[in-house]
C-alpha cells in the first residue's frame, strides 16, 4: 500500500536548484518529518553513481525512520542490488 504522500528525489541538474543540502541530507530530513516512501531519479548519472547513491539512501533511510522505503526509478537491477523497496518503471 502506498502512503498518501511520497517524495521524489531527483538528481537532474534542472531540478537540483540552489540547495545547500545533498539528496541524502534531504531524504534524512524528510524521513525525520514522517515521509515513508521515496523515489530516487537520476536520468543522467552513470550506473555506478546511481547504485552508490541508491545504496546510501537505503542505508540512511533505514537508520532515519522505521519503515521508510526507497523506490529506484527505471533501474530494477540497481533496486535489487541495493535492497530497495521497489522500482518505478515509466
Q: Would you list the SSEs in sequence order as H and E? A: EHHEHEHE
- What overall geometry do the principal axes of the alpha carbons give? globular
Which sequence of strands runs across the widest sheet? 1-2-3-4
Low-pLDDT sequence parts: none
* Intertermini distance: 19 Å
How large is the share of residues in beta strands? Answer: 15-25%
Report the average pLDDT across residues. Answer: 89
Task: State the helicity in percent bands.
Answer: 40-55%
Number of helices: 4
SSE topology:
Blueprint: E1 7-10, H1 13-16, H2 23-32, E2 37-41, H3 47-64, E3 69-73, H4 76-82, E4 86-88
Parallel strand pairs: 1-2, 2-3, 3-4
Helix pairs in contact: 2-3, 3-4
Would you write up a description of this structure?
It is a single chain. The protein has 90 residues and is of the alpha/beta class. The protein has four helices and four strands, in the order βααβαβαβ. Helix 2 (23-32) runs parallel beside helix 3 and helix 3 packs across helix 4. The two termini are 19 Å apart. The mean pLDDT is 89.
